[in-house]
Amino acid sequence: MLTGTKKGCDHGLCGACTVSIDGERALSCLTLAASIDGSDVLTIEGIATGDELHPLQTAFVECDGFQCGFCTSGQISSAHAMLAEHARGDLSAATFDGSRDDVVHGCSRLTDPEIRERMAGNICRCGAYANIVDAIRSAAGEESA
Amino acid sequence: MKTFDHRHATSVDDAIEAVSAPGAAFLAGGTNLLDLMKGGVAAPTALVDLRRLDRTSISVLPGGGVFVEAGATNSAMANHELIRTRYPLLSQAILSGATTQLRNMATAGGNLLQRTRCPYFMETSFAACNKRDPGSGCGALHGFNREHALFGVSDACVAVHPSDMAVALSALNTVVHVQGPNGQRVIPLDRFFALPGDTPSVDNTLAPAELILGIELPPSDFADHSWYLKVRDRHSYAFALVSVAVGLQLEGGIISSVALALGGVSAMPWRLAAAESALVGLPAVRRSFDIAARLATEGARPLSQNGYKVDLIRHSVVAALTSAAIDRSVEDTAPDDTATDDSGTKEKP
C-alpha cells in the first residue's frame, strides 16, 4: 500500500496529490486509473533510493520546508519534476519578464520568481513557502536570486 | 455514487460513433470534466477516452502556418519550439493559466471546451443557473458578479469563458478543425464560441458528436512584438479578471498591423476591432495606446459589482500595448526605474 500521495482538495486546486505520469507531473485526483492503464507512475515513495533520501528530500528537512507535512509529498514530487523541466529548457510565465532569447532557449538561471511561479500549483496552508523555496533552490544548487 | 462506463477510443471514427450514444462524452485531459462530475454539474453515463488516439503532434503547414493536434497538452504547446519562436503570445497566454500539473494534463481541444467557472454554475446548491439548468434563472445577474462579463451578455447569462489560451488564439486568427458524423469542417476561432443569448447552456457552435481534430495557426507577423497581460486577484494560479492579448507589427516605430483581444470580459475572447483599426498607421507610443484604450470599452455593459473592469480594461490595454512594443531582442530587458514616457518602449506593467 502506497500512502504517501495525499488527497487534499480533490478538485485539482491544491497539488497535494501530485505524482508524475510517464515522467510529467500531474494531479492524481483528476486522473482515472483506467485512463492511464499501462503508464509509469512515480509517487513520493519512488523518489528516494532505498533508505537514502533524494537531495530534494534532504533539503526540505534541512531548510524546514514544511510544518504539518500534509502537502509535503506533493511539494517534493512536484519540485522533482520541476527541476527536470527547467533543466530541459521549459518555460514559465516568469520567463517572459526576461529577454526574447530566454523565451526561445529557456532561462538557464532558476531564480526565486521562477521557482515560485513553477511551484504555484502546490498550496501550503501552513505557509512554509519561504522555506520551500529555500529547499528547492538549495537542491538545485543555485545561489539566492 | 454515480457509475459510468469508460472505454478508450481506437480511432477518430470510433470516438465519434461512441460519443453519439445518449449520455456519452469525450474525455481528454479530464481536468475540467472530472471535476464537474465530482460536483454533480456534469453527469455523463459513458466516457469516450481520447488519450490513445495519440493526436499530439505540432507541425509546420504548407504556407508557413502551424497545426496543433487537439490532444497536444497545454505544456507541450507552450514549450514547443515552433510555438515559442513563431507564436510567443500563445506560449505566454498558456503559461499564464492554471499550473504546470494542470497544463501537463489539459489538451488544446479541451482548453477550448472548458466550462465557465461562474460559482452559480459550479455549485449545484445554487438553484438558479441557466447554463447548468436552462430556465432556472441567472444567480449572477443581480448576485455576486464582480468576476463576470461586460460584453455580449444577456439577461439569461453573464458568465465569462475562462481560457487564456483562447484569447491568444483569437488574436492570432486561428481556425479550429473538427470532424463529426457528417465529415470534417473548419470553424474560425471567432465563430467557435457562442454568446449566451437565450440559450446559455450552449457554449460553442460545435454540432452534436463533433470532435476537435486540431487548431490551425496561420503565419504570424507578431513574433517580435507580442504580450499577454493577465490581471487577477493573486499573482499566479487564478482566473483573469481582465486579460489582454496583443500582437504588434512595427515598421520604423509605426504600427503596421495589430491584433487585440480581451479575456475575462465575455463568454468568448473579445476582439477589439475598432481599437485595432484606429492603431494602424500610428506610432507605437502612449498617446496612440490611449486612443485604443478608450475604444476598447465601447459597448461595455457593467453589472452591479464589475464596473471596475471598465477602468481596468483601459489601463490593461495601455500596459499590454506598451509591453508588446518593447524590443526584447536585447539581452537585458529587466524593468528599471524608467518612468512612462512617450516613446512607449521602456515601460513595463
Task: Walk me through this protein's architecture.
The complex is a heterodimer of chains A (145) and B (349). By secondary structure, chain A is mainly alpha-helical. Chain A has 5 helices and 3 strands; from the N terminus they run E-E-E-H-H-H-H-H. In chain A, strands 2-1-3 form a 3-stranded antiparallel β-sheet, with helices on one face. In chain A, helix 1 (55-62) crosses helix 5. The N and C termini of chain A lie far apart (40 Å). Among the domains of chain B are: 5-52, 2-Layer Sandwich (Uridine Diphospho-n-acetylenolpyruvylglucosamine Reductase, domain 2); 226-325, Enolase-like, domain 1 (2-Layer Sandwich), CATH 3.30.390. Chain B is 27% helix and 19% strand. In chain B, the strands form 3 sheets. In chain B, strands 4-5-8-6-7 form a 5-stranded antiparallel β-sheet. Chain B has a 4-stranded antiparallel β-sheet with strand order 9-10-11-12, with helices on both faces. Chain B is globular. Chain B starts with a strand and ends in a 24-residue tail after the last helix. The model of chain B is unreliable at 333-349 (pLDDT under 50).
Short description:
The complex is a heterodimer of chains A (145) and B (349). Chain A has 145 residues and is mostly helical. Chain A has a single domain, classed as Orthogonal Bundle (DNA polymerase, domain 1), CATH 1.10.150.120.
Q: Which structural class should the secondary elements of chain B be placed in?
A: alpha+beta
**Overall shape of chain A:** globular
Global shape of chain B: globular
The appropriate CATH architecture of chain A is Orthogonal Bundle
The CATH superfamily of chain A is identified as: [2Fe-2S]-binding domain
CATH fold category name of the domain at 226-325 in chain B: Enolase-like, domain 1
Q: Enumerate the spans of chain A where pLDDT stays under 50 for 5 or more consecutive residues.
A: none
Give the end-to-end Cα distance of chain A, rounded to a whole number of Å: 40 Å
Termini Cα gap of chain B: 48 Å
Low-confidence stretches of chain B at least 5 residues in length (pLDDT < 50)? 333-349
Order of helices and strands of chain A: EEEHHHHH
**Oligomeric description of these chains:** heterodimer
Portion in helices of chain A? 25-40%
So how many helices of chain A? Answer: 5
Largest sheet of chain A: 3 strands, antiparallel
CATH class of chain A: Mainly Alpha
Number of strands of chain B: 12
**What's the tally of helices of chain B?**
12
Identify the CATH architecture of the domain at 226-325 in chain B: 2-Layer Sandwich
Q: Please describe the biggest sheet of chain B, giving its number of strands, its sense, and whether it closes into a barrel.
A: 5 strands, antiparallel
The percent range for strand residues of chain B is: 15-25%
